[in-house]
Write a structure and sequence with these properties.
The chain has about 675 residues and is mostly helical. It contains 26 helices and 4 strands. A two-stranded antiparallel ribbon has the order 1-2.
Length: about 675
């Protein structure tokens, strides 16, 4: 072969290399028709980065095939350089295939898919993948320019393109496209999308390889455009944009199974459990706290939009500002205005993002406070809960107890008990002049079953009538703060106070019975004058009455004043939620209802009271009342034992060293002072 032949062969070989770098692998390197761009199918199944079979055959096989004898003149080092460049083209080709497939138009949706998309105001549900593909295309622009320049160099007629120069030009591209090839394979295999795909790109931004970090920044910025569009829709309008698994705010799986015709109930349920933060889709720069703030603002927008829609239909006045003299302004417009500077900047700036979402959360919280406290008149409903659940209206509950006492002498009939208690409730309201109270109409007597928001406390019990509880019908939007958990604590407090009142009422009846039977006979008179009977009644009444007084005066009254102050001063929905949660938690903890050792001792004392009362009432028909004195002695001994155990628990080091210590000391002081 002449030098001219070798030069032509070398130019042809370099030309094949440049074509391979552009993704078009010829037969020289083992390529087939399937390796051309035109033949690619949309059914993308990526080849692994280490599965490349393209390149020059080994020297022994090349001589045996005798197809490219002119390649036999290449040194081993030149063969290695060419094969490395062909592999670079292989990586580029696979990444380009991914870009081509992910950028294709979405096929038409069927009716069911279209309905699901409309529920989330979504496009195709692959927005992050398309943005990722666009970012890859932008990253590969430099690679493509170098390939084009190499092709021009070969076609301009000024000689050959040395392999060394080609190797130097694509050295950095080799590292980059191989990493991108591995990345698209993992994206395909794991079916990454949405926030999880953005998170993967953000992880590569700190991988330590400069060219890969720069490319990852481009990919992340491309996908953040989608994230900011989703943020704008959620923060501005309370709507989810993107298919399932795209945004880090998503619908709760348990809420998707709920339904109902009452839009108010659906709206309230949606507020409490309709949406949640998916940690797996959180971008690296978005903290959990910031994500919760984003969640709150979007849910607030949905509630406020529903309030505006209701107002438009009913003609009621809109919210008049935030309660601080500010003019009302759309939170949606503020959200879009705050997001615009973040969207226009390269990269992600966590301090600015946190400042934006926390500012929006504060504004949304103020607007929600006004909706619940001012428009829905929350303080009136809190007072009603105090009146009827926490027994502020003692005359009403005394009248109710009087009406129910004959009924409670017998075993309750589960089929009629609720109706009978409801009738007694109406009669008690009439007797106390409360029949026209509009908030009492929201109170309903229930019997049996678990109440919503039941805390699972082990309360002291009296008898089968313990299944009685009160329900409160909450109007929209008060259900946003008067949650089942909050109302459940009110119900627990009512059940406890009602059982205490029932027990002290029984002890009052004991006093009346003893006075009645004292004149029947000499034996009855001796029984009534017995110190055992009167001393036992006094001790039982002292313990239970002071417990009830402590709960009513030292717990409920003190905590209610504090709650009223916080509600009046907060002007912030989040502070309002915290105040209600703290108030109801204090009712339970300061009354020691969550201390099983105390409630179990109290349970024994209450049951002892009913045994004592039944024993006294039985003497009305007894002809030998003095024979019951040993029974009263045993009851006295039983009470002394239980009282000693109760005081041992109250004065124990475990409770005295806890946060309950001040309230425990107040309770013990009330018992000792009145003892």
């Amino acid at each position: 072969q002449t030098d001219l032949d070798l030069t032509i062969a070398n130019m042809a070989l370099v030309g094949e290399v440049v074509c391979a770098l552009g993704g078009h692998v010829g037969e020289v390197f083992g390529g087939t028709d399937k390796d051309t761009f035109a033949s690619w199918s949309f059914e993308y199944k990526p080849q692994r980065p280490n599965a490349c079979q393209l390149g020059l055959l080994p020297r022994s096989q090349d001589k045996a095939n005798n197809n490219n004898n002119w390649c036999a003149l290449l040194a081993e080092g030149e063969r290695d350089v060419i094969n490395d460049l062909v592999r670079v083209g292989f990586h580029y080709r696979e990444v380009s295939r991914f870009i081509c497939v992910e950028s294709r138009p979405q096929p038409p949706l069927n009716h069911r898919q279209r309905h699901k998309e409309e529920e989330t105001v979504s496009g195709s549900g692959r927005a992050y993948r398309r943005a990722f593909a666009c970012g890859l295309s932008e990253v590969l622009e430099g690679y493509r320019e170098d390939v084009v320049q190499a092709e021009r160099r070969l076609s301009d007629g000024y000689g050959t393109l040395p392999l060394a120069e080609l190797q130097g030009r694509f050295c950095e591209h080799d590292l980059l496209v191989s990493r991108l090839h591995s990345l698209v394979c993992s994206v395909h295999d794991e079916d990454l999308g949405g926030g999880a795909l953005l998170r993967r790109a953000e992880e590569l931004e700190v991988c330590g390889v400069p060219c890969v970090e720069r490319a990852a920044s481009v990919l992340a910025d491309s996908m953040r455009e989608v994230m900011y569009r989703q943020l704008g829709a959620w923060l501005g309008y309370g709507r989810l944009v993107g298919g399932e698994g795209e945004f880090f705010i998503c619908r709760s799986a348990r809420h998707s199974e709920e339904g109902g015709d009452d839009l108010d109930e659906v709206s309230t349920a949606e507020w409490h459990g309709g949406f949640e933060v998916d940690d797996s889709r959180l971008p690296l720069g978005v903290s959990r706290e910031a994500a919760e703030a984003v969640l709150f603002v979007g849910k607030s927008q949905r509630i406020l939009r529903r309030f505006r829609d209701r107002g438009a239909r009913s003609g009621s006045a809109p919210l008049a500002g935030t309660g601080r003299g500010e003019s009302p302004k759309s939170i949606g417009s503020e959200a879009l205005a705050l997001l615009d500077p973040l969207r226009s900047r390269r990269g992600f700036h966590k301090p600015d993002f946190d400042s934006c979402v926390f500012e929006l959360r504060a504004k949304a919280a103020e607007r929600m406070w006004q909706l619940v406290v001012v428009h829905a008149e929350l303080p009136r409903h809190l007072q009603a809960l105090k009146d009827y659940f926490l027994m502020e209206r003692g005359n009403f509950h005394q009248a109710l107890l009087t009406e129910l006492r004959p009924l409670m002498r017998s075993t309750p009939n589960p089929k009629t008990a609720e109706l009978e208690v409801g009738d007694a409730l109406s009669r008690a309201a009439t007797l106390t002049g409360l029949e026209k109270d509009p908030l009492l109409a929201r109170v309903t007597a229930r019997f049996g079953g678990a109440s919503p928001g039941d805390q699972g406390l082990s309360l002291p019990s009296c008898d089968d009538w313990d299944a009685l509880w009160l329900d409160y019908r909450v109007q929209w939007p008060l259900g946003l703060v008067l949650t089942p958990r909050i109302l459940g604590r009110y119900r627990d407090a009512f059940r406890f106070l009602w059982r205490l009142r029932r027990t002290t009422g029984e002890l009052d009846e004991v006093w009346t019975t003893l006075r009645r039977i004292s004149s029947r006979s000499h034996a009855h008179s001796r029984l009534c004058d017995s110190p055992q009977v009167w001393h036992l009644r006094h001790q039982l009444y002292h313990l239970l009455c002071n417990y009830q007084t402590y709960v009513q005066a030292d717990v409920i009254e003190a905590q209610q004043r504090e709650l009223s102050d916080k509600v009046g001063q907060a002007e912030n929905f989040l502070d309002l939620e915290n105040a209600l949660d703290a108030f109801t938690s204090s009712l339970i903890s300061q009354s020691f209802l969550d201390v099983t050792s105390i409630t179990s001792m109290l349970d024994g004392v209450i049951k002892l009271c009913f045994k004592f009362a039944n024993a006294v009432h039985a003497q009305l028909d007894s002809n030998s009342p003095l024979e019951s004195l040993p029974l009263f002695s045993r009851l006295q001994d039983d009470f002394q034992r239980r009282q000693g155990m109760l005081f041992a628990v109250l004065k124990g080091s475990k409770l005295s060293a806890s946060a309950r210590a001040p309230h425990l000391h107040q309770f013990l002081q009330r018992l000792d002072y009145n003892g």
